[in-house]
Automatic annotation (TrEMBL):
Family annotation (InterPro entries): SET_dom_sf (IPR046341), SET_domain_protein (IPR053185)
Protein name from the UniProt record: Uncharacterized protein
Upper lineage: Eukaryota, Fungi, Dikarya, Ascomycota, Pezizomycotina
Amino acid sequence: MSAPNDAPAAQPDKAPVAPDNEYYEIRGIPGKGYGCFALKSIPRGTRILTDSPLLIVPMADYMKADIEAAFGALTPAQKEAYFTLHSGHGQNPADWPSRIHPSVGVRDRQRIEEQHLARTGEEATLISVFQTNLWVCVWVRGESSYAFASAERRLQIQELERETQLLRGLRLPEGAKQPDFVNKLLRMAVALQKEGAWDARLAGVFLDIALVCEVNGDLKMGVLAGEKAVQIKRDCQGVDFPDFKKYAEAVERIKASRRREMGGANGWKA
């Protein structure tokens, strides 16, 4: 993103120095900010950083008192460190304040992964473990622009999420009986991939597709969708993420059913 008119742009010759690592270096981008550029090709899913969180508020609908309680449990040194990272809305970007990543759930580690294949010399796109789409698009008028197509896709994704959310989770077996339910999940998966959102949200959509296939007895497609879900989950969050086991166990169950199905079809013992 371009720097605001009242804020100086990053100066390439004064870029921060990245810690010693084999993946990236920091460069200033003329007219913009700073970027991380790949020192070598980095496959999607490569873990670049892992760290423990300083402060956790383990609920979605939190109040001021919840934040104060979590902050109160910190040591004096941790509180001091927190205020070196804390930033508020409306700060002058010229001060280059650090930002704190929000989270949609409790986790014991902060993980930063590469979201797309970054070739040597290309700017890296990083994804954090929480469910979000990190693409930032500037609105450009014209139906042929990427930003216009992206806005249309994101609107479609929001509509599909609204139409399917009440039939996912514990009510998925009920959703599986709806004629257009799985088609909506497929459309959501296609739109997310076109948007470049190879994140936990896409993994969840593929897992639900796999589970719907399992309910409806289409085990072959269930295996394919389940393997895709596990691959995306592994790439964006890692096998040590708390609910990765749930994905792996579901897919193994579908695979076992598929093996029994194929064994029965060919007169074999499963």
